[in-house]
């Protein structure tokens, strides 16, 4: 602080927040790193020396330095959360909305998929049915939306139908209230893939109804199926009563994607055969 003018009537210049002095950038650095590690701030501990050095060179004040440390820590934690959640979800890797071939499947509206990708339907605990013949990309879209759900903070569990039925048969005698900890009950989004290739037994249809009934307005379901809705009674052990009860809950608040187009697998096979000829 400096005083201008003489006598007692001088005016004072406002003090400018000082940048971090050079000595502070290295003083007790080891102790600071150790404390950050103990607090679980691993990125901040790793990045601190470089950020302190930059703060001195670029004349950064303490608030800017702290903002950089915290922003980096939060970004690292979010990356770790997404990576761990994807691993626990059981989602296959490599299939995203970004690499879905919308040009090959023009019946799929990109705008609708992007809207679903925002996760609004998950917040409303709604259902998504993805229907169509084999090979048109149903599983790809289900996985891609599952990845988006994880990135948006939702827990996800992915099952092939056969895997899900096996798990539910093991728990058949357990009351639903005691199954709250099971992935297929507690996840924010449960994806059930390949429904319709095999006919349900009556026991399996009942277990499927129990799942749908318990999750109704508690959590979202995404189901892929090669069967049109009108064919579900035959698929569900020929039981029209239980089919009606299942569809009543699924369709109450539901998005339906009907994909009608060529098979990706047949296209790839044709390309392969043409390449050999």
What would you note in describing this structure?
The chain is α/β, with parallel strands linked by helices. It folds into 2 domains: 18-87, no CATH class; 90-271, Rossmann fold (3-Layer(aba) Sandwich), CATH 3.40.50.300. It has helices at 22-26, 29-38, 42-57, 62-89, 110-117, 120-123, 138-151, 161-170, 183-186, 202-215, 232-235, 240-250, 264-276; strands at residues 3-4, 11-12, 127-131, 156-160, 189-195, 220-225, 254-258. It has a 5-stranded parallel β-sheet. A hairpin with a 6-residue loop joins β1 and β2. α10 runs parallel beside α12. It starts with a strand and ends with a helix.
Write the layout of secondary structure elements.
Elements: E1 3-4, E2 11-12, H1 22-26, H2 29-38, H3 42-57, H4 62-89, H5 110-117, H6 120-123, E3 127-131, H7 138-151, E4 156-160, H8 161-170, H9 183-186, E5 189-195, H10 202-215, E6 220-225, H11 232-235, H12 240-250, E7 254-258, H13 264-276
Parallel strand pairs: 3-6, 3-7, 4-5, 5-6
Antiparallel strand pairs: 1-2
Helix pairs in contact: 2-3, 3-4, 10-12
